Amino acid sequence: MRRYPKPGDVALVVALLVPLAVALPRLGGPGGPPELWLTWVGRVTGILGLSMMLLAGVVSCRVPGFDRPFGGLARLWRLHHWLGFTAFIMVMVHVLALGLAAVPASLVAAVATLFPPLTQGAIWLGWLAWVALVVFLAPTFGFFGKPHYQRWKHLHLVSAAALLLGLWHALLLAGEVWPWWLLGIAGLGAIAWRKGVAPQRRHPYRIEKVVPLARGVVELVLRPEGDGIRHEVGQFVYLTPLDERLAAGRGEEHPYTIASAPSDTRLRIGLKDLGDASHALQMVTPETRVLIEGPYGEFFGRRFPERDMLWLGGGIGITPFVSGARGLAGEAGFEGRVHLFYLANSPDRAYYHDDFCKIAERIEEFAYTPHYYRDHGPLTEAFLREHCPDFAEREIYLCGPPGMNAHLQRLLAGQGVPASRIHSEVFDFL
Questions:
Q1: Domain spans of the chain?
Q2: Which residue of 73, 121, 156, 272 sits 20 to 30 Å from the alpha carbon of 115, by its own alpha carbon?
Q3: 270-294 pLDDT, tens digit each
Q4: Partners of 217 in beta bridges
Q5: What is the pLDDT of residues 224-233, one digit of tens each?
Q6: Count of other CB atoms within 10 angstroms of residue 391
Q7: What contacts 163, CB < 8 A, 6 or more positions away?
Q8: What distance lies between CA 425 and its chain's CA centroid?
Q9: pTM over 0.85
């Protein structure tokens, strides 16, 4: 399905190409004998690789609102991962191409090109940056198993060392250094913000209540200590619990979707037992403190008043629709009619069923239909059309487990719904 570039994508491409555009007049073209062509490839991939490394640092800053031009934080993280991995590939090609370019002279010359005397510190700074990059990326490969959360967070400091060493390497070798200064300040500044400034700007809350919704699912009701955050429907936050009695997750930040209406004086978060940290939070002690960072995301950012909306939610992915339904009293800003399909395995797993029924009774423009997998199997076009005949003409929002989202995307595409009218989020990142 076709997706259009976001404004943030355009900005990233421009920033990526600036150092290369500045350097190209000195590099010349890729023609000539093989050794000259390989030298050109090696230098170009080195420039692109370092640019991508620094931009991966830039997009990791996680300033609330910064994610919106990129289509939300989930998509920004995917760009961050893509930039980091592609940078590593570019750096490997950079080293290999420069080494091969010297082979026609002799193998000794090739080795000397890659491993010169220690007096040539700029080259060895590049090697140190490469080592730091390997140490940082190694845990992401499946061979090592799933990375431990806290160790993985600490390893991000190694990535900062890789950026610093790579930048130093470029500043010593580049003809024009101002692009590297700009990208370096942006990339390293973003990491400094993420690790030093942002933790001091989190909002303190107290856990007022822990409301059981189903087995392994609770809703945390949080009371702000001060002004708290201001959010829109469909956004999420990073929550850091400080309860010393927690079996796991104390001091760790994890993303959770907001389930409260924007006008609610309390922040409500639906939380499912999906790991050690979320399991421990099922039994968090009321009145203990948590820190909230955000809000992030723009799930309902693109709205089209001329079309009614269809919401498809399942699992803990129902929470943005809980926020949306609770906000339908007026402050959510939705126009037209909304039809929500709640995709659950069985009635006991439809955590917010009663809430939706009450809202549907009170608000004429809101229709609600539960769909239970055990009774009906996967959602079908026939079920949709029976309960919402005009579903294919609506603006569609879906959120849930990756498998559910993939099934719904195929179903809707098969009914001729264009990708531009399907908005989805899958929270499968840290």
A1: 7-199, 202-296, 309-425
A2: 156
A3: 998 888 888 888 889 999 999 999 8
A4: 214, 272
A5: 998 889 998 8
A6: 20
A7: 53, 54, 57, 129, 184, 187, 188, 191
A8: 10
A9: no
